[in-house]
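so the lab meeting is tmrw and i was supposed to have these ready like two days ago... anyway. pasting both below. for each one the top line is the aa sequence and the line under it is the structure tokens. i havent really looked at them closely yet so no promises
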Amino acid sequence: MSHTACASRTRSAAEAESYNCGTHMRTAIFCLGLLLCELNAYAAPRTHTTVLGRWHPVEIRTETGAVQSIKIRRLIIDGHIREYTTGPAHEITERMFVVRRAYRINDALPGESRKLPAWVWRLAGWMSVDRQTGHISQLPLPSFDEEVSVASWYRDYVAYCGLSDDGTKTYMMVAQLGKRKAILKKEFSGPACGAPRWERDPMRVTFINGVEKTGFIVRARGADLQPENTEEEGP
């Protein structure tokens, strides 16, 4: 074999080896980049921005046609309007809060000649908002009536007066977030009450219906009727 042919083969082998090394290097860098992206996704989850906007006065209309003035705020997550809320929010944990929902519904009748929907505001139930994930959950509070019930929160417990499905019975209700069954559901006579009153040490809730007061000691698995205090209360 001539010296020229031998040199040519040597150069070809060197070039092939250099090409293979370059290809393997690019593949290794690409795989390393994918691995770093995946590790970053686990190490640094996306941060969501949750904001309750400014108050705006609106009028709501009940099923009976009565009109009531309330104030609403926009629930804004990552710059997008996700829901409308009313009333103060209650902080459950550092990452989760609950707030009551308001919404608009089209009140136009089929026979009405309208170019635009006839939007009216209505009250809804409560929802929870996770600041870390941006997730919103509607809370299925048992026997909660959107027009009558007034909720009072303490920790992850909520107390209110609820109604039966046919509206003929009224209940004193205590529910805990994450549990489907109510901790307390006790029927009482009379109209629905206002916001119940919470106390701690021990955890106690009092339902006030006119001049009548009914208190319960609340535990994780139930609620016990608190004997009425015969001592006169202070001012």
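ok protien two:
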Amino acid sequence: MNLQNKRLLKAIRDGDNLVIRQLYTDCFQYTTKFVQTNNGTLDDAMECFQEALIVLFRGACKEEFVLKTDVKYFLAGVVKNIWLKELERRKKSKKILTSPDLQRNNLQETEDFDQILLEKIKLDENYDKLSIALNEIGDNCRQLLSYTFFEKKKDKEIAVLMDYALEFVRQKRKRCLNKLKKITNEL
């Protein structure tokens, strides 16, 4: 971790308000551009950025937290993940709200709603852990996993893109997933 990141994390732990202002100045423009380019509003961008800051602050409060990339890239990655997750949630919610069964039953019982809310809270906690872990596993692992799970590329394509042997792609993915799981379990 470079000296600038160490100072930043220490300032966050110490509650330095100037750091928050500086993060907004340095990083919020990317968030706004990304979210608005992807069917969002300025309010959506503000919410995503605040959630990303919370992820950073939660991590910074843990002494073992190591920021392996520049804070701008870390926040950009977290914002991207948060916004894509929100878009997916909205897409599913539109499908649910137009479901004929739901229109007839109109959310059956409060207990069902409570269960759904508890599951969402658990998913959000896991998502925060995953965001932190993805930023800690290294660029090659992150890229390999991105090609595999987000871009749905085949192993042969990944091998060409990353200049790896086909069998190495499989081995590397397994190692990366194990590393990701280990970091996530430690958080």
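from a quick look at the 2nd one: Residues 3-109 form one domain. Confidence is low (pLDDT under 50) at residues 102-110. will dig more after coffe
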